[in-house]
Amino acid sequence: MASNKYDVVLLDIEGTTTPISFVHDVLFPYVTNNVKQFLESRWDDPSVQTHVWALAEQAAADIAAGTNPCVAINLDDNAEDVQRQVLENIELQMRADRKVGALKALQGYMWRFGYERGELQGVVFTDAVDAVRMWTRAGRRVFIYSSGSVEAQKLIFGFSDHGNLLEYVEGHYDTRVGAKVDDTSYTAIVRDIGVCPDRVLFVSDSIRELQAADKAGLQTILSVRPGNAPVGEHTFSTSSDFTQIPL
User: Fold this and answer.
1) In sequence order, which ranges of the chain are alpha helices (DSSP H)?
2) Mean pLDDT throughout 13-28?
3) CB 190 within 8 A of CB 196
């Protein structure tokens, strides 16, 4: 459990506030099952073209870096060929579970349509909802740090099975601030929030993320949820019910 008083709670999402199964069994398949029709029907939309351009830029960078395998996207080709290249690129990246910004941005863009149409609904553990409300009432500030884009984070909490929870979350961070296994990412977040590291409690299901946060001076708790990957020996405090984390 938290060993000292804290002013800020920084929460991971997948495996922490939200079941891993929701991400892998609901959100990801929604993209893979709908992306072809989505692109074909909205190909001339400037927003879609912005995402296509970003994917092409990422593909070019991957090729230059020798990332393998990789699918090039040649924007000078005809629309049908470009669409095929984009679909192959997305499929390859999702199969590899890559966390690159261009892919995350397109996923978030597609998910917004799904949430707004009622085809998707965010899932948040009940104790996480109760805890976020508890922390807010007690004057604690709540932030999210996830590998998913800020847009995707807001959709999960804004269209959750417990209603719109965004009023309880003061801010969001994604991997644009840095990798979650890099201690400098947590230093940057703490600096941006404007508090001392030891006044921040970070909750995650990832040992490597907790190690990075600990190195940066944050307090840490390991989230234990059904479906989470098993972890080896560690010295972190654990919680499967966030309402039991002392204030």
Assistant:
1) 20-22, 28-41, 46-65, 79-95, 101-116, 126-137, 150-158, 183-193, 207-215
2) 96
3) yes
